[in-house]
Amino acid sequence: MAGDGLGIIKNGAVRISGGKVTEVGTCLELNSDEQFIDCQNSVVLPGFVDPHTHLVFAGWRADEFELRLSGKTYKEIAEAGGGILSTVVHTRQASEEMLYLSALERLWEMVSWGTTTVEIKSGYGLDTENELKLLRVIKRLAEAGPIRVVPTFLGAHSVPPGIEKQNYIRLLCEEMITLVAEKGLARFCDVFCENFVFNAQESRLILEAGKSAGLMPLIHADEIESSGGAEVAAEVGAVAASHLLQPSERGMMMMAEKGVLAVLLPGTCFFLQERHRPPIGKMRELGITIALGSDFNPGSSTLLAQPLTLQFGCLYYGLTVVESLRGVTINAARALGLGDETGSIEPGKWADIVVTDLPDYRHFAYRFGHNPVQLVISRGQVIYQRARFQSPSSFAG
Fold this sequence. Notes:
Layout lengths: L12 E5 L2 E6 L18 E3 L1 E3 L11 H8 L4 H6 L4 H10 L2 H17 L2 E7 L6 H17 L3 E9 L8 H18 L5 E6 L6 H13 L3 E6 L7 H8 L3 E4 L5 H10 L2 E4 L1 H7 L7 H7 L3 E3 L13 H10 L5 H7 L2 H5 L18 E4 L6 H4 L6 E6 L2 E5 L12
Parallel strand pairs: 4-5, 5-6, 6-7, 7-8, 8-9, 9-10, 10-11
Antiparallel strand pairs: 1-2, 3-12, 12-13, 13-14
Helix pairs in contact: 4-5, 5-6, 6-7, 7-8, 8-9, 12-13
C-alpha cells in the first residue's frame, strides 16, 4: 500500500518545453539542444501549493505569542483589542511600497521551501482604501513573480472599530466587493465565519454578494467553535472551507455532497495549541478531499514552509504521508481551482517542479524540520538553487 496515490515513477524523467511538461517517462532521449538537469538519487515532485496565507501585512505580534504561553486564549486576546485588529493598525500605517518589499522577501523564503503557487488574502485593511491597497500589493507580487500568486479578498476578516457590524457588512457588499471585482483584484471572496466575528447568516450574505460580483467563495469555518461554517460553505458552493476544527457532522455531509474541499491548517492548530483537531476519520469516511495550507500570518501561524505543514499534518493531525503529500500538491491546487494547471507532473500542466535531497517519499515526514529543497522550477524556469556546502579546506588561508 505504501506510496499508493502518488504515481511514483522510479528512474523517471521529465521533458519541459514552453514552460510546460510535455513528456513523463523512464527512457526519454536527450536532444542536442536540450538542457539536462541530473536528479539522480532524489525525490522529484510537483512544486508545493499553499492554498491559504495572509502574506501581506505590517507589524509582528510576538507579544501576543507570549501572552498565549501564559494562558491567554486567541479569543481573549482578540476581545482585548489584540489579534487581527492589532495588525490592521500597523498595516494601515504602512506604505504600499513597504508592504510590497516585505511580502516579496517572505515570498522568496517560501520559494526556498519549494512553494511555486501561493494564495494570498487581504484582510488587514478593513476599509475600502486599505483593502484595495493590500490587493494592489498582491497584484504586484503576482506580476513580479517569482511564482504564481492567487489573490483573495478577505475584507470580512473582522469588524473594524468605530463602525457597527451591519454598516460594515453593507460597506463590504455594496462598495468594497464591487470595486474589487471591477478592478480585477481578486479571484476569491473569503469570510471569517465565527459566531463572535461574522455568524453563519452574515457570512452567507457576504459570500453571495461576492458570487454576484464574480468572485468565487472561500470560507474560514468552525475554527474557534462550531458556528455553521461548513454548512455555509456547502450552501454557497464554496470551492473550499478552511480550519474545520469543530464542524458539525451535518456540515461535513453537506460539504461532501457539494464537493467542497477541506483546507486544513495544522501549523495554526499547533501554534495556538488548540485542543481540538479536525475530524479526519469522518472526512475520510465521507470522501472529503483534504488539502493543507500554512495559514502564514503574524498572529496565529508564522509558518511559511509547506514541507513543515506536511509534517504537522502527519504528526499532529494523524494524516498519512501520502495524504499529506497530496495535501500540499494536487489537492491544494484543486482548492484554488487550479488542479488542471499545476499540482502534479503531467503533460500539459505547468512545469512547477521541486528537486529534493531525499531518497524516499517517506522522508518528507520522517526528517522533521529539515528543508529538503535543492532546486525549484517554476513554469519551466529554475528560480532557486540551494547553495552547496564548501569543504573546510576551502576556507583555509
